[in-house]
Amino acid sequence: MTNVRKLTPVPPVPGSPCIDAIDWAMVERDLDARGCAVLTQLLSPDDCRALAALYPDDARFRSRVVMARHGFGRGEYKYFNYPLPDPIAQLRPHLYAQLVPIANRWTTTMGIDVHYPAEHADFLARCHQAGQTRPTPLLLQYVEGDYNCLHQDLYG
pTM higher than 0.85 for the full model? Predict the structure, then answer.
């Protein structure tokens, strides 16, 4: 097992500084305009390094994808096992709460008759009932020249 410093937990309550500092109106505009948005400073640089340092520890992950084998680009990623690292587990429900209204607006706009539940735990329960019981958070590993092509993750 890789020797890694303990990750600093992200405050597990809504109203934490990292969540409050995000300009959610800008995130929504970026998602509408480009389909993606950058969220900065969710984790400290030390926490980012600590998460990246987990990559060699295969026990922390459930599978590894080499992107070139599937035409996804060049580089690789690994899906975390449960339990997820604390910062990821703690951020997910708070980010979900901010993003679910946008997702539901999009489904309405597209005429899709499926809406996402307000709570992340309810969303996970829906996923588990549908047979998706494995965690989907992943950690990418790139070296110079690697890239990720747009592709659909059929499980996640």
Answer: no
